[in-house]
Amino acid sequence: MALLRDKVALITGAGNGIGRGVARRFAREGAVVVIAEIDERTGPAVAAECVELGARALFVRTDVTDKASIEAAIATAVEAFGGLDILVNNAFVPTPNVKLEDKTDEMLERTLRSTVWASWWAMKAALPHMRARGGGKVVNFYSIDVEMGAWLHGDYNTAKGGILGLTRSAASEWGRFNITVNAIAPTAMGATFHKLCAENPGFAEKSAAMRPLGRCGDPEEDIGPAVVFLASDMSRYVTGESIHVDGGLHLPGYNSRPADVPVRER
Question: Which H or E element spans position 181?
């Protein structure tokens, strides 16, 4: 029995990587899928894939760093399908991997806009439509990098820490509307993973060996089901949670210090 049958779901950044995997899994579970993606090549392609899987799907070009664009995407979804039940805030815009002292204000601003602000705007825009449906589901994307204090990700870690605060605040306040708000901290073979594999021979094998389950996650088969759980009635009594979906990587953790950075320097 499809867990998301006829539920209208909007997924940001669903044109590739984890977002694409979640969209495809939602389609397999009977959801109506709105692909909110900036890439006008990959976005329509994923929407077509969802249709091939038997779902109704729509691509809406969306720039998550722009409030008006996000609000327009949600309005388009509601106009096309009559409402909104599920919001998945997955998208973010990466910045160069440099040490904290070399991160610029512009990098932090860009990261905040594509994560904290984007999720804030989308959630606020989705709220009246979810209330009109008698409830809804929000799934935000957190990161293990916050807990590890991952090197070269100072702006990203700051923003994802904010996502967790936003998730818990909304869960606390919006429970009265029958809206659950949760976060996942996934690691999987998405766009960043494949980029690192291309740049660092052996990265895939080392990454798999770090995890108790001994393998790297698949966006559709490993991450998608966790998001489906949080978006379905199976999690009707779960809110304000952050769930690691990383093959157990959070247990041993990892050391992200670059090899060329000394332990002490002046």
Answer: strand 179-186
| pTM more than 0.90 | yes
Token code pair at residue 196: 């690192």
SS3 of 235, please? helix
Helix axis angle, 42-52 relative to 17-28, nearest 10°?
Answer: 20
Encode pLDDT of 1-49 as tens digits: 699 999 999 999 999 999 999 999 999 999 999 999 999 999 999 999 9
Q: How far apart are CA 86 and CA 10, in angstroms?
A: 6
Q: Kindly provide the residue ranges of all beta strands, DSSP E only, lying in the chain, ordered along the sequence.
A: 8-12, 32-37, 57-61, 86-89, 136-141, 179-186, 242-245
Write phi, then psi, for 134 (nearest 5 degrees). Answer: 85, 15
- The Cα 239–Cα 181 span in angstroms is 5
d(CA 39, CA 13): 9
Tokens encoding 56? 């109704």
Query: Pairing state of beta strands 57-61 and 86-89?
Result: unpaired
Distance CA 258, CA 266 (A): 17
DSSP reduced 3-state for 44: helix
Run of H or E including 128: helix 118-133
Q: Are 73 and 49 in contact (CB under 8 A)?
A: no
**Rounded CA gap, 153 and 174, in Å?**
31
Neighbour tally for 252: CB within 10 Å: 9
Catalytically active residues are 143, 156, 160
User: Residue 184 forms beta bridges with which residues?
Assistant: 141, 243
